[in-house]
Amino acid sequence: MDIAYIQHGDLGGPYRTVMADGVSIDAECRPNPYVMGYGAKIPTSYKVLYRGRWRRVYVMCYGNSGSEYVFINRVETKVDIYLDEKES
């Protein structure tokens, strides 16, 4: 089962971590709007269900690693997604 955790709180904590109600993976993703591939709002193919709404997961990436987040009440809120590894 795919699981997502949403962490509410100001930078540096303390955080309140809650489990999202669902995770969806789209077959296609919107293209990256940044030419170099790095930026503040890179769309992903993931969506999380939280409080009755599907929310697109974005990535902020300025190096070799990115940070995933969703918008909740116009606030960037950190999200961690854990996917099942399915054997083929």
Question: Top keywords for this entry?
Answer:
single chain; 88 residues; mainly beta; 7-stranded antiparallel beta sheet; 0% helix; globular
Structural class: mainly beta
Helix content: under 10%
Shape: globular
Termini separation: 16 Å
Element order: H for helix, E for strand: EEEEEEE
Query: What does the main sheet amount to?
Result: 7 strands, antiparallel
Q: What percentage of the residues does DSSP assign to strands (E)? A: over 45%
**Order of strands in the sheet with most strands:** 2-1-7-6-5-4-3
Oligomeric state of the chains present here: single chain
Q: What's the alpha carbon Rg, rounded to whole Å? A: 13 Å
Mean pLDDT: 88
How many DSSP helices?
0
Q: Unreliable segments (pLDDT under 50, ≥5 consecutive)?
A: none
The total strand number stands at: 7
Count of domains:
1
Descriptive account of the structure:
There is one protein chain. With 88 residues, this protein is mostly beta strands. It has one domain. It has no helices and 7 strands. Strands 2-1-7-6-5-4-3 form a 7-stranded antiparallel beta sheet, with no helix packed on it. A hairpin with a 2-residue loop joins strand 6 (66-72) and strand 7 (75-82). It starts with a strand and ends in a 6-residue tail after the last strand.
Give the SSE map.
Elements: E1 3-8, E2 16-19, E3 22-25, E4 39-50, E5 53-61, E6 66-72, E7 75-82
Antiparallel strand pairs: 1-2, 1-7, 3-4, 4-5, 5-6, 6-7
